Structure formats: C-alpha cells, structure tokens
Amino acid sequence: MTIKSDLIEVNIGPQHPSTHGVFRMVALIDGERIVDVKMVVGYLHRSMEKLAEERTYTQNIPFTDRMDYLAAMTSNLGYCLSVEKLAGIDVPERAQVLRVIFAELQRIASHCMATGAFINDCGAWQTPVMYTFRDREKVLDLFEMTCGARITTNYMRIGGVAFDIPDEFLPALDKLVNDDLPYRFEEYDRLLVGNEIILMRARDVGVVTPEMAINASLSGPMLRSAGIAWDLRKADPYCGYDQYEFDIPVGYNGDAYDRMVLRIEEMKQSLRIIRQAMHALPSGPHKTEVPLAIRPPAGEAYSRIESPKGEIGFYVVSDGGAAPYRWHVRAPSLINLSVLKEMTVGQTIADAIVTLGSIDINVGEVDR
Amino acid sequence: MSALLTIISRNWYDIRDLSNLSNAILERIRDAGGPGWLVYVVSALLGAGGIVAFIGGAAIINIWIERRVVGRMQSRLGPNRLGPFGLLQPIADAIKLMQKEVLQPRVADALVFSVAPIAFTVPGIVVLAVLPWGRNMTLADLDVGVVFILAMSSLAALAVFTGGYGSNNKYALFGAMRVIAMLVTYEIPSVLALLGLVLFTGTMNLASIVLFQEKYWLPLVLVQPLPFLIYFISSSAELNRTPADLAEAESEIAGGYHVEYSGMKFGLFYAAELINCVAISAIMATVFLGGWWTYKLDEIVPGWMLFIGKIYAVYFLFVWTRGTLPRFRIDQLLAFAWKWMTPMAFINIVVVAAEVLIWTETGWSAGLLLPVYVAVNGAFAVALIVGWVRFMGPKFSRFPDRPRFYSGIDVPSLPAYRQPAPEATGIGTAPSSTGVA
C-alpha cells in the first residue's frame, strides 16, 4: 500500500547543528525519505586563491591554516612542499622528520574531531565529542608548546619549519604517544567498534562503491573505506615517509561505519609513525635559509600530500615575481563531498546526517 | 531509640508521615468550628501545595543534577561557578530565559502554539497527585491509579505534537510526526508492562501496590524484572530522552518540536521534560521499587524521603542512558517496539497469569512461592532477552568489524564506471500534488 504524500523541500543548513559549518543541503523529502539533494556551497568563500596572487609566497602560508582549520599543519606542509618543488629548495633532514611528526600529530587531532563529531551526528549527547576533544587538546598542547598557536599553527616554512622544538617537547611527546594516546585509542575501540547502536546507524549507510570512489576522484578515508588501498604516503612518498613502517587500513563496504573504524585505526598507525620519527630525529638545522620574498623561477609545480581528509594538492604557477601568478588548491573536502547526492538519495534524513558526518568535511576547505 | 519513636509517634512534629501535620491542622479547623467544606479545601490545598513545591524545586535541581552527572560522565566538571557547587546556575538560566523575548512566528497557530508548553507541563505534575508519598500521604487515592498515570503520561506526547504542529515549521512538523508514531508504538509495551504488575498484585490502586510490596516484603522489581526494563525503555521513548529523543533530535532536525520556541515558553518545555522525567521515575519507584516502603527503614527514616531517594535513583538511570547512548533511527526505534518489546511483554503477561493462577488455585504460602517466582522470572527474563537477541537481533556478520591492513598500495582494476544520467527532480520548483514536477 502506498500513501499519497506531497514532497517537502527542507533546507538542512546553512545554520544547522550537524552541517559542520555553513554547508547547505537542500533536500526534497518524501516523509522521512530523501528523494533528491542539492548541495549549496560557498557561504564561507573567502577568495583565498585570488588573494594569494597579491601576497608573497611566505605570506600565503597563513591562508592554508584557515582553509582546513582542523588540520592546519598538513595544509601548511602541502603548500610549502609545492613552493619548494617550484623553487628547487632542499629541506634539512631534521625539518623533514619534524614535519612528519607534526603532520601525524595533526592527523590524530583531526581524526579525533572527525570521530567524535560523527558519533555526535549519530545522536549521542556530546559524550564522544568530549572524550575525543580531551585527546585532541593534548595534541594541541604540543602545538602550542612549539609554535605558540593551537589551531592556526602557521608552523611550516618554505625550506623547513618555523621554530625548532623546545627542550620539553620530546618528553611530552614521548608521554603522549607511549602512555596517554594508546590507552585512549583502546578505549575508543572498546566503546565504538562493534557497538550495536552505531552498527545499526552506520552500517550500509552512505555506501561508496570502488567504482564510484575512483570515478569521483575521492581520497583519504572515503577512498580507503571502499576497499582501495591508496595512500599518498605510500604511493607518492614525501618528507621521507618511505622510511617509516606503517600499514594502510582498508575497509570492506565503503559505509559510514567503515570510515569511522578506519579513522581510529589510522590514528594508531600515526602513533607508530611518530614513535619511529622520534627515535630517528637527527640534529642539525631546522630550516634552510631562504629569502623572505622568495622569487621562484617562472614555471609551475603541483605537489600533493595525504591530509587527514584526503589528497590535498597545491598547484602554484610562478611568473618569476614575488607573488604566485596563480594558486589553486585541490581541496579533498570539496571533492569528497561531490558524491553526497549519490550516497544520500533513498535514505532517511537521519542517515543523510550520519553520511555527511562520516565524510568529515571542513567547510573552510570546501569554500576556501 | 524506640522509646523516642513512641514519644513522637503520631504527633504533628512526627515528620515520618506528613499526614500527621496536616491532620493536626485539620483538627484545629474542626475544633474552631470551621465549615465542613473548608476541611476538604484546606487538605487539598496542602497536598497540592506540597506537590507543586516539590516539583518546582525538582525542576530546578534536576537541571543541575543532569548537567553535573553528565559532566562527570563526559570527563568535565559541569556548572560549578555560581553558588556552592554551581547550585544557583539553573536559577540564573531561568532568569535569563524569562528576560528573553518570546518570539512567535506569524504563520504559527497562535492558540495551539501558546497552549502546548503548558499542556506539556501539567500531566507530569498531575501524576504525582495519585502516587503514595507515605503510608497516609496520597493526595488523590484513585482506585484506577494505574490507568490514570498511563493516560496522563501519554498526554505529554500529545502536547509535543500540538507544539510541533502549531509551529508551522518543517523541522517542528517532523518532530510532531515522529512523536505521534512513537506514542502509538510505545504506549503498548508500557501498558503491557504495568498490566503484568496489576495482574500480579490484583489491584490498580497505587497505594495498595505499595502495601502489597510491604506485605510480602518484596519490591516488585525482583519478581518482575522484565517489565521494569520494558517500562524503562518505553517511557524513555515517551519522554523523548536519548537514545529515543527523535522528536527533538538536535543533530538531525535541529530541536524538532521546540525549534520555534524561545524565552520562557522554551523554558517550560525544558523544565517540563525534567518534570515528566521525575513523574516517570516516581511511577517506577512506586510500582517497582516499593515506594515509601523500604523493609524496616521507613520506621526510622521518613518514608517520603526514601521515596524521593528512589525517584532520584531511577532518574540517575535516565541521565546515565542519556549520557551514554547514541540515537536510534525512527524505523529502528519503532521496529524495536514492535518486534522486541511488545512480544516480550505479551509473553511476560502469560507467565504472570500462570503464576497468579498457581498461587490462587493451589493456595500455597507466599513465603514458599515468591522466592521461586523471583528465581524463575529472573532466569526467564535473561533467557528471553538472550534468545530474542540470538534469533531476532540485527545480523551484522556480513562484514567484519575491523578493517584489513595493507603494507603497500593496492588498487584493484575495475570496470569502466558510468555515472547514471542525472534525473530531473523537483528542487527549486514548488512541489506539485502529483509529486515530482
């Protein structure tokens, strides 16, 4: 029996508790079921790519903080790598290892946020967010210790990192990665992995097939949850990632649950990398001296790294001047978001929220 | 000690039973030659005043309790600045809410919109009138008390529907639709759960149910563990509390039925949710945990204090589940009621009926039968739940819980993927009556 009903058009966002910022999703709804979804982005557009054409290469680094403000270190890193590639700058060994340590710490912080916010979207009443924030705070404490900032770190520089680590950093890091966080991640495992309610809510919700993932150029946990073992740290190593031993966790089904579990496993793998990097930390300069207003030779460069959200790429074109002629960012949040319609149509509103939470978008990066 | 108890016994300062105090006042009125009706009015006002005072205090203190307890569960402190231990924080919040402008959407149905918060608050208060607060402390000693509390506790859901429907907001409408679906579904297991108790005790009078527990020295939760669970879960669905807070579902429909409310109207919804929670906790404390009776303890400690203690013990369970569990989806929640709780409650009623029949037909003594029933029902509840999970539970074995690990990249070769052609849909156009434009 079918009941004749009118379709309702509902605006989910831009002001909504679960759209992770000012993302807007216009959903056409039949009862509780979604018939069609239209994505509206651009509420947080700050025109960074255009503004960058007026500023020197070094002055552009803070823009990358404010794109993915939950993973500022990796955005910094991706941009600096592209300029270094363009200008042909060598980076000292110590800076390489420091970059790895901070990028992996940032991955832990970002995945903590993603996991907690995802369970919150599943309807838990703030508890998982508080638990994961507690651990994220500890990582941010280390950032503050090193560069003075917690969120918008502005730490990576062209040719290295801005500051060397202080003396108390390594003991604090050792305590964090060997005592605090492993215990916490085991706790996440006990509480979240295999939890019946989370399985009911997230299994077979927002499924990404491998074909869909490759066709839409997805990356990060979205791609790996679909069963494709692809990680730029392995596929196109940068900063000496080929020297570290770690595994790529890969899901089976490509649903929201797989993505949540993958993030927890990736945090554990990040701990492995940090432990190896800590012991491999060489002495020496933390930065190659480069002129403040660096003028790379005319040309273009694209470099990509594995950010917590996926493949973040920076395309820089130089005309020989002090500012980039053109600067483009391949934002993983935006590209991962592009399959939202295929993932949500046919599901209920509650599933759409869970799906959106599992993509782990950051609207600062989507709109730039 | 006992000598002291004998001295104060049944005097007005014997606070073990507050009816002594009210009786003293009523006798004073009678002695002074007051008219007959005045005694009734004064006794009714005394009881009602007591209950309203309790519920007003509880609404304030419960906000504090909820925030502090959940704060501890979330490894943070909770409000601790204003007053001792932050106790004055709810009062500050209430003052803030009163100062706020009460906005009302122009398209809302003004009468329905305004009545809903009040209609939501009243049932929770009224329920407390029929509960026995002490041996002689029942304001309205209804013979059909169980029916009354069931009727009243479903009225609250109707008020939620009224508010959601009257707001003329899509999110509020979703909340209203969900609350009606949940009301229709969860009323059945909660009625069936209490029906088992009524069968077992043979009375619908709540004071008599407590007296039954006193007589046989047995809180009914021991002999009826399954209805305790069923009633707890279904009333948490009726109360809109996590994991069944689908009507407000902040992360999905942004507050649901109260999305358009502001100021003290919202404050009433917020307070009434806690009042209704206290009412449900009080019902459970009465029928399952023995109410004011606690073995011999109620001869020393005032029974109403024990009762309030039990209310807060049950209330803690509600706060605990709220701080712990994620939310169900609406279809899962309804399926849970129809596939799990309703059949279990039916099976339980059959078992209870058989037990009552054995008790009355054989005439064996309660001291012999009740311990057997406690053991049998406990084992039966565990077996039923485990069996139901085994045979009816959700099956997740299709995919492993854990991911696999690759030490290098591995991209499978896939057939060429063709994206389906985009379909014409109705977004941006007014929905026509035939569906997609």
Give a quick summary of the entry.
With 368 residues, chain A is α+β, with helices and mostly antiparallel strands.
Measured by DSSP, the beta-strand proportion of chain A falls in: 5-15%
Residue share in helix of chain B = 55-70%
Strand ordering within the main sheet of chain A: 1-2-3
Largest beta-sheet details of chain A: 3 strands, antiparallel
Spatial extent as radius of gyration of chain B: 26 Å
Shape of chain B: globular
Q: Could you give the distance between the termini of chain B?
A: 83 Å
Indicate the CATH class of chain A.
Mainly Alpha
The topology string of helices and strands of chain B comes to: HHHHHHHHHHHHHHHE
Task: Name the largest protein-protein interface in this structure.
Answer: A-B, 65 and 56 residues
CATH architecture of chain A: Orthogonal Bundle
Mean pLDDT of chain A: 87
Distance between the termini of chain A: 48 Å
Q: Count helical runs of chain A.
A: 15
Helix amount of chain A: 40-55%
CATH fold-level assignment of chain A:
Cytochrome-c3 Hydrogenase, chain B
Shape summary of chain A? globular
Overall domain count of chain A: 1
Class computed from helices, strands and strand pairing of chain B: mainly alpha
Low-confidence stretches of chain B: 428-437
